[in-house]
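User: Hi! Is it possible to get a structure for several chains at once, not just one? Here's what I have:
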Amino acid sequence: MNLHWSVVWDNAGALARGTELTVLLTVATMALAVPGGILLALMRLSGSRPFAWFSASLTELFRNLPLLLVIYASYYVLPLALGVAFSPFVTALVALGLNVSAYNGETFRAGIASIRKGQSEAALALGMSGWQAMRVVVLPQAARRVLPVLASTWVSLFKDTSLVSVISVGELAYTAMLIRSRTFRVLEVLTAMAVIYWFLGYPQAKLADWLNRRFGVSE
Amino acid sequence: MNMRDDETDAPKVLTYLDVRKIFGSFVALAGVSMEVHKTEVVCLIGPSGSGKSTLLRCTNGLESIDGGEIILDGHTLPRDGRGMRAVRQRMGMVFQNFELFPHMTALANVASGPLTVLRLPRREAEERAAALLEKVGLADKAKSYPANLSGGQQQRVAIARALAMQPEVMLFDEPTSALDPETIGEVLNVMKALAEEGMTMLVVTHEMNFARRVANHVVVFERGTIIEQGPPTQIFDAPLVVRTREFLSHLGWAG
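Assistant: Yes, the chains can be modeled jointly so their relative placement is included. Here is the combined structure:
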């Protein structure tokens, strides 16, 4: 069997641009899904029934549907529902953002619940409002506690972005598949793709492990 | 109406009238009436579960009351959130487990009330905090995090944090119960100094020596009611109620 690695070098530029988009998609999704998750957690814990119900429904919907289905659904349903056609990138961002927000919401909810009641009582006893106690005392502590979990969500997200190749977002997986279908060099392209994902993913996973050791055990 | 025979001329800061609190089927407070006068130190003693801490927590609205009323400076305590918030700013609370904010330095803990609640400029809040840390003998620990302080030091920071709101009355909920024996003294000394400055204090405690020496008035709780109250000389040297004597001898109090 002959391997022609030149196919990788010849397409290095395209692979680099795909990689760039994969990283950008990961960062942009997290940038949406962290505030999204906090919002969902706060709604769930707000004590307002409509808010809590809305948050719980959204969370359970997107946590329990396959991501691939959510991506396809966003691609076909969003333009129909809103009457506007988004770019594949924005569509991907919506789908990934909803999915990861749902996970982050549960993460933050558990994080907030893990801060003992005495902490918010101490804040209230100083005369803080419920929101001030949350913002100044509870959330900063919860954030530290959930950091390791967010980090592993991040690593999963980095790999899951490959799923949006099905709606032709030109990230790494899509680019690699395009090169494959043009050149028919399956093994070379898959290997290149594996190497890129692994070498980018490994340090992230190590960082997540480190965060887990650093912040996982508290007090 | 005069509830007490050791009545002082100082104005009443807190008045409790037939205060009741029920948790499910457990009666935590079964009609408690007492007074705290300005500059007085009132110690609440009694077996655990007798309602002392509950009374303290009802005073600053961490628990709601189910009957009676609590009067602060002539005004019945409000039951709504906004009103209660204003009241809490006038009372400092010190907890058994300190409840310092672990993600903030000692200085930031003390400054957190003035900064967040009073919205003082950061410099002013931190100056106030530094002065209070100095006062509790921890000026050199300003930059330390709670995890790096001993229990006694943490509790002194917690006292400074409560004082930073310049409260009219300080509530202490078993402030030394979670401490190692060797650090209890430093906390009690800070409290004693505070009492000597004229701070009005309501203290739930198991430290009978402190109550004996520092309190102006001692209130004995049992099963959600007050069984006896009076000056420390009465309670510790010549209790009028048999159960007071029994409780004290249980603790090994020799008089």
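The mean pLDDT of chain B is 93. The CA atoms of residues 176 and 184 of chain B lie 6 Å apart.

User: Great, thank you!
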